[in-house]
């Protein structure tokens, strides 16, 4: 017998109006009406083994589909378990709506099970955190949550409901307006000023960040840099806007580019630790570079460093307008052609120099050999997910996406444990693509139980675990600072693959370099969640240039 309509039906209907087709959750009684509403309206429910994975899956859905993601968390610990996922969405600017349960209004203040005032926990890491005002207002409240999450600059919203409000009978149909946020128009004078800086530059560099993808500006960005022959270094989900092998893609000449540039135009990403906090130039006697920051909303403009120019508006409109402004300003790519050629040649040389280590026969296994083997098997539309420290840093350097929107990592918050939630979402969002999850062995410990989620929901994913038996990001720096290390050891060759097998997937341990390729091929051919657990040399540390401090 079908259950009667209630306020949960209204919340689900509004979510669907905003493009949501999947609810990520872990079962809890406080939110039963939301599940019932999903059943009534044929919304997919994906239940996970830890609430953090539900929020990470919702966040990855938003980043892959560029539509809002939805997580539903039960009261108390169900909601507190989701805090790291919400913080990650906050730092990534991901439009995620988290709907939570709450102890009944009729019992509030008397010590009901898991009674807690949740919104204050989320206020610093959301655009809005609030409690629904009543059963009759749930449609308006959910619509406000989605509208706020999508408005520039996007981000997460938390909304919880008193349990008895959710269970209340529906008072009728609610029609969501689903208004699209009006695009912010750029200031023509600001664009003209940036164009003049490009016209004066001898060594320009463009950084394309995640928001270029998230704001659907990837084609406009590519047209702009190709028209004016500007060398590009991508950041985050900006990877793939220029595909691997593009002559303007100079990621592997990053040190030279950032060290000697006289103008750096950063588009769609913060001037944070990943970009030296916005300080460029100054290498080998070069002066400091002028910096231009282009973002999707005024709130995202850097305030901690001086800017030579800036624009805060819809990124497609900015880049389209800047293209025209460059023509008016008389930008001539010949003025910096020698610089562009130098960076392109430097990048090509670095790629050529990688070959020996990408084919390394060293035993124990050098991590780069894994990426040499993996690179030969990845399809053009493969979605690659990184969750880890040193092992995933190698991926950021040696895995170059061929299409935009196919790379996921935790972003600037750097939260480990995103991987399994991201993998669940990626398999659902890209059902015909390869989905590859790269795990450090430390990161695997945070969320590996959600392989059970992959198995139960029949979501095949290839997992590659770089297993060096240590916390590499901590052990090597401690050794350098103190001459010893503590709390940095894991089990050598721990059988994470057997965990996957026990949960219903497949897997194997690889200990010699010649076994890597065949094991990866078996993983891709298996049709199940499959882990290739590769024992790597713990003595090898990724040669990073920043600690994030």
Mean pLDDT: 95
Number of DSSP-assigned strands: 17
Rounded Rg: 24 Å
| Major sheet size, sense and barrel closure | 6 strands, parallel
Provide key terms for this protein.
single chain; 549 residues; alpha/beta; six-stranded parallel β-sheet; globular
Describe the structure.
The chain has 549 residues and is of the alpha/beta class. It has 22 helices and 17 strands. Helix 3 packs parallel to helix 5 (83-92), helix 9 (188-200) packs across helix 13 and helix 15 runs parallel beside helix 16 (390-398).
Short description:
Helices cover 39% and strands 15% of the residues.
Topology:
Layout: H1 7-17, E1 22-25, H2 32-40, E2 44-47, H3 51-65, E3 69-73, H4 77-80, H5 83-92, E4 96-102, H6 119-122, E5 128-131, H7 138-150, E6 157-162, H8 163-166, H9 188-200, E7 204-208, H10 210-214, H11 218-228, E8 232-234, H12 254-260, E9 263-267, E10 290-295, E11 309-312, H13 315-329, H14 337-358, H15 367-375, E12 383-387, H16 390-398, E13 407-408, H17 419-429, E14 435-440, H18 441-447, H19 451-456, E15 462-467, H20 472-482, H21 496-502, E16 506-510, H22 516-526, E17 530-535
Parallel strand pairs: 1-2, 1-3, 3-4, 4-6, 5-6, 7-8, 7-9, 9-10, 10-11, 12-13, 12-14, 14-15, 15-17, 16-17
Helix pairs in contact: 1-2, 1-7, 3-5, 3-17, 9-13, 11-13, 15-16
């Amino acid at each position: 017998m079908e259950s009667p309509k209630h306020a949960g039906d209204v919340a689900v209907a509004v979510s669907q109006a905003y493009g949501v087709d999947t609810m990520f959750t872990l079962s809890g009684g406080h939110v039963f009406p939301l599940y019932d509403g999903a059943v009534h309206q044929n919304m997919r429910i994906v239940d996970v083994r830890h609430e953090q994975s539900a929020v990470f899956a919702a966040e990855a859905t938003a980043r892959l589909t560029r539509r809002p993601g939805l997580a539903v968390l039960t009261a108390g610990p169900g909601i507190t378990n989701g805090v790291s996922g919400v913080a990650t969405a906050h730092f990534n600017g991901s439009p995620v709506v988290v709907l939570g349960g709450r102890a009944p209004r009729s019992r509030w203040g008397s010590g009901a099970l898991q009674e807690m005032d949740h919104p204050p926990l989320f206020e610093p890491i959301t655009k809005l955190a609030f409690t629904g005002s009543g059963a009759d207002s749930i449609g308006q409240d959910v619509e406000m949550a989605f509208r706020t999450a999508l408005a520039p600059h996007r981000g997460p919203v938390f909304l919880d409901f008193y349990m008895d409000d959710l269970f209340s009978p529906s008072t009728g149909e609610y029609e969501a307006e689903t208004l699209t946020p009006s695009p912010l128009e750029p200031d023509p004078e600001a664009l003209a000023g940036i164009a003049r800086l490009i016209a004066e530059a001898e060594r320009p560099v463009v950084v394309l960040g995640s928001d270029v993808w998230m704001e659907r500006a990837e084609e406009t960005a590519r047209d702009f840099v190709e028209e004016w022959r500007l060398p590009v270094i991508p950041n985050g989900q900006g990877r793939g806007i220029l595909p691997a092998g593009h002559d303007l893609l100079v990621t592997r000449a990053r040190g030279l580019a950032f060290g000697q540039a006289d103008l750096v135009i950063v588009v769609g990403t913060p001037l944070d630790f990943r970009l030296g906090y916005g300080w460029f130039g100054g290498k080998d006697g070069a002066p400091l570079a002028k910096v231009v920051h282009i973002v999707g909303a005024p709130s995202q403009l850097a305030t901690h460093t001086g800017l030579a120019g800036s624009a805060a508006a819809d990124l497609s409109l900015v880049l389209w307008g800047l293209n025209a402004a460059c023509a008016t300003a008389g930008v001539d790519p010949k003025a910096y052609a020698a610089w562009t050629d130098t960076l392109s040649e430097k990048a090509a040389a670095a790629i050529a120099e990688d070959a020996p280590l990408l084919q390394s026969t060293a035993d124990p296994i050098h991590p780069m050999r894994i990426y040499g083997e993996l690179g030969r098997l990845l399809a053009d539309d493969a979605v690659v997910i990184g969750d880890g420290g040193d092992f995933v840093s190698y991926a950021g350097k040696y895995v170059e996406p061929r299409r935009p929107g196919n790379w996921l990592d935790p972003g600037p918050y750097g939260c480990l444990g995103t991987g399994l939630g991201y993998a669940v979402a990626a398999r659902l969002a890209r059902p015909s693509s390869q989905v590859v999850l790269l795990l450090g062995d430390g990161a695997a410990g945070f969320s590996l139980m959600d392989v059970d989620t992959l198995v139960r929901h029949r979501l095949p994913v290839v997992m590659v675990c770089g297993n060096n038996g240590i916390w590499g990001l901590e052990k090597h720096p401690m050794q350098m600072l103190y001459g010893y290390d503590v709390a940095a050891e894991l089990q050598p060759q721990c059988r994470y693959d057997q965990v996957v097998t026990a949960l219903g997937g497949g897997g194997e341990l690889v200990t010699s370099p010649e076994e890597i390729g065949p094991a990866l091929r078996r993983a891709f051919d298996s049709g199940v969640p499959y882990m290739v657990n590769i024992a790597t040399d713990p003595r090898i540390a990724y040669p990073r240039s920043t600690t994030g401090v």
